[in-house]
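hey team, just a heads up i'm posting the complex here instead of the shared drive bc the drive is being weird again. everything in one block, sequence lines first with there labels, then the predicted structure for the whole assembly after. its two chains so it's a bit long, scroll down
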Amino acid sequence: MPITYTSGEQIEVYRFSIPVTVGAPLLALFLQAFLPRRLPFFSIFDLPLLVTIFFAMARRNPISGLFTGAAIGLVQDMLGPYPIGIYGIAKTVVGYGASSLGAKLDVENVGARFLVTMGFYLVHAAVYFTVARGMVNLTLDWSWSRGILAGLANALLGVGLYFVLDKFKQRT
Amino acid sequence: MESLLGRYRNLIILVAVLFLQVLGLAVQVKRSGDAENTRLIRRWAVDLVTPFERGLVWAQNSSTNLWHNYFFLRGVRAENRQLKEQIEQMRLEQVRVREDATQAHRLQSLLAFKEQFIAKTVPAQVIGSSGSDLSWSIYIDKGSNAGIAQDMAVITSGGIVGKVLRVYPSTSLVLMINDQSSGVGAMLEKSRLQCVARGTPNGELILDRVMSDEQVIAGENVLSSGGDQIFPKGLPVGTVSRVGPGREMFLSIKVKPAADLSRLEEVLVVTEKQERAPLEAESGGRVRAADILAQRLPSVPQKPAEVAGTSPSGTAASGATGEAATATGEKPQAHDAVPPLTGTGTGVEVVKKAAPKPATGDSGTNAGSRNGAGSSAALKAASAGSSPTPKSASSPAKPVMAPPKPSNAQPTPQPATPDSPH
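-- predicted structure starts here --
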């Protein structure tokens, strides 16, 4: 079984079948576009972000992570009304960060996943806000309370979602 | 050098990917008409996602219809009775509203106002959203194949929803009015204060740039003003829900949208608008009230130059008309084209009916909004002083109450035609 060695610890690297690699992000994008119309509270979640974090942490490859994040983010941008690239940039950073972190830490347990997801949600929001305000001139107001609440909600959902997606992992 | 590149390979790729995206974003922002530049790739993404959404919406609707139409019929009889009663009440209300609308249209025709009427709409179903709580937009299941084009107004029976931002063959992206990049020309129903309704990042709707010395009260209706050239005048935008002091010298006014934007299922896309004056003005046979008034007012002394070579009656009429035109704030030469008075009964009747009973704001507006035209909106705007003409139309009404009958006037003027356009 091929394994990578980082800081003297054994960390497993996973891969996914092509249908899962393509289907899971597409399903996340579809649900993100569809569900908020039926369940308005669902707009607080960012399913594509959770999928980006999951794939990045599981593959533990920064290049793969950043390209996964960029692809998912760009498709998410294409579905929205604003210029393409805002989500793309934010998710590229998250994909790179999550995979880099995954290569250094054990992010398999629930507590670590919760904290990592919440942290990366805030990183994603910070990058998004910076780009949206700085480049696209959108007037976004940052609210710490809302950001933390949304981060908690996404982290909770993420832990459950990762549990489901773990079933599709294949050891390299 | 090689080892350096190898060591920072990941970081270099990250920077390169980010740089490319920033560059692409900058190009889009620079060319503000981003829709055309990115149309093709957006279409790919939409084509990828919307078929599933359509399928799910279809399945959901089918199951809902099956349930509601075949299984869940309990209480239908009672509901039917209740609806019949409601129809009766609405019929009574309709008579009143129609009368007010007729009156408003008559006055509008006198003022030669032009309105935008909703001529054609296409119903569409909401199939999805942009999938973000930072942008407020929806996807509908009709596109260019159904005649939908960019910047068309999207409405519901409750009020306005937004405008078409991007059009694909069988899908369209609608930017809702509560999106932060959205703006609607609006006005307050009672005070006729013109303003702009904007969205906020939180998806709320506010009235922008209203000075703090303006009187705005919670509960007041906000209507579209038609100034944005997208939404016809008089459509409900929302209701003022909160008024407070805002930044600098402006008020902070929050508006509750008239349409339930978070639970939209079906919408109407206004595919065709008509700009026309009310039919009474179009007919050409009618005579302006101001001209009739001018004829009945004491004529001004004729200038010696005009006396020579003009018949007495013609001079008096034209001179008086010129005087009335000046009083109404219009250019006198415009009245040269006014046809000679033949059926003065019609004109007198118009002024008589218009002067004593001003149109009530609510009913007139309702009628206007249903028809896509703010009939009483225009009337009120005029009476509020936005146009100089109404003052003259109402002030000289006094002598008309007991007018000396002209020789060719009919003895009993016909009542106002109830089949005036709505």
